[in-house]
Write a structure and sequence with these properties.
By secondary structure, the protein is an alpha/beta fold. The chain has one domain (about 10-95, about 130-235): 3-Layer(aba) Sandwich (Rossmann fold), CATH 3.40.50.620. It has 6 helices and 6 strands; from the N terminus they run H-E-H-E-H-E-H-H-E-E-E-H. The chain has a 6-stranded mixed sheet with strand order 3-2-1-4-6-5. Helix 4 runs antiparallel to helix 5 (about 115-135). The longest helix is centred in the first third of the chain and has 24 residues, at about 10-35. It is globular, with a radius of gyration of 18 Å.
Length: about 240
């Protein structure tokens, strides 16, 4: 988490109040006008904000996550905590075992370190293909993306049409697109929302265990994801438009 956060800052409270009201209104609109809608929860800090808001307001938005089979132990612990804390039975989507077996048989268990192409193929098998199944039949999907998270996410819109998922496309919403890191953490701390323990160990962005490391002070918050690659390539394919 951001250790410089001042929870008593009036300006932060004011901005957070406005942000929360706007997101709650947007989520209610999505639930009413784009049913069935789903929230793709990656179990990061931002996703816990949205999880808390959806659950608190009892919105008919399904919350699901992608279990790649290589998540950190702390992420599985958070999934269990969500069940105990909210009574939330998070729906999990898994990779097809045949695709995983073929990938590892042909390339090796850790082939994603060898090239961007092999890393992206691993992400496709473990994330992109399961996401396609998770979004089938949906009219909208919600993410916890923020514009300031990475160079690849600059200019992130609040809403867009995603032609690559669903049955012929669907609406995609990024309710936290304009939120700051401080606003995310202020919401979590002020509302006592559970979050991944790795965040307190300098892991601001958490994915698969072998593809995520802690960062040092001053590094970009996405520097710990696929740290062996250039920043311009650091996306798994879930949020990249197909050519």
């Amino acid at each position: 988490m951001n250790r410089a956060l001042d929870l008593a800052d009036p300006a932060l409270h004011e901005s957070l109040t406005r942000r929360v009201e706007a997101v709650r209104a947007l989520l209610r609109t999505i639930a009413a006008d784009f049913a069935p809608a789903a929230f793709a929860c990656s179990l990061g800090a931002e996703d816990m904000v949205l999880t808390d808001l959806i659950v608190r307001d009892h919105l008919p938005i399904e919350i699901f996550s992608l279990d790649t089979g290589r998540l950190p132990a702390e992420t599985y612990e958070l999934i269990d905590t969500l069940h105990k804390y909210y009574g939330l039975k998070l729906r999990l989507f898994y990779p097809h075992h045949e695709l995983v077996e073929r990938y590892t048989r042909e390339n090796g268990i850790n082939a994603f370190y060898d090239s961007i192409e092999l890393r992206q193929r691993c992400c496709f098998v473990r994330k992109v293909e399961p996401l396609q199944r998770a979004l089938a039949g949906r009219k909208a999907w919600i993410t916890g993306l923020r514009a300031s998270q990475a160079a690849t996410r600059a200019g992130l819109p609040l809403r867009s049409f995603d032609a690559d998922h669903g049955d012929g496309g669907l609406e995609k919403f990024n309710p936290l697109a304009e939120w700051s890191e401080n606003e995310v953490w202020a919401y979590l701390k002020l509302n006592k929302v559970p979050y991944n323990a790795l965040h307190d160990r300098f892991f601001p962005s958490i994915g698969c265990a072998p593809c995520t490391r802690a960062i040092t002070p001053g590094e970009d918050i996405r520097a710990g994801r696929w740290w062996w690659e250039n920043p311009e390539a650091k996306e798994c394919g879930l949020h990249v438009k197909r050519p």
